[in-house]
Write a structure and sequence with these properties.
four-stranded antiparallel beta sheet; 14% helix; 119 residues; single chain; 8 strands; mainly beta
Length: 119
């Protein structure tokens, strides 16, 4: 019985750790909206949508990619992200986060979101 309860607890804890983290593979010359337009349009689920938060973006693949931040179609910032590099970027309310692959190679990326107000 103790082994069963321990196993269930471990499984639940592992799931809590992995929630919000999303892995994507983008084909060459593909751009993907990660968050900012709402349910059904966003590629990833931002549990802090509608408020200021951090996006943690990690290039898990072999090739460089680009992170683009826009607001209402207006470009705010473009950030190149080299292979195996990680950035933590503040997303203001209304910001849209895009990932752009490079023209020749597919890229792999991991996205996670974090609250500004850690409790």
């Amino acid at each position: 019985m103790k082994l069963f309860l321990s196993s269930i607890t471990l499984i639940l804890l592992c799931q809590l750790k992995s929630q919000g983290q999303t892995y994507f593979t983008l084909e060459p010359s593909q751009a993907m909206l990660m968050t900012g337009k709402g349910p059904g349009q966003d590629g990833s689920i931002n549990p802090y949508a509608g408020q200021i938060c951090f996006a943690i973006i990690e290039n898990t693949g072999k090739y460089d990619l680009s992170v683009r931040i826009q607001e209402n179609g207006k470009l705010i910032e473009t950030i190149p992200l080299k292979s195996k590099e990680l950035i933590k970027k503040k997303l203001l309310k209304g910001y849209e986060l895009y990932i752009d692959s490079n023209p020749k190679e597919k890229v792999e990326v991991k996205i996670d979101y974090e609250s500004i107000n850690k409790e």
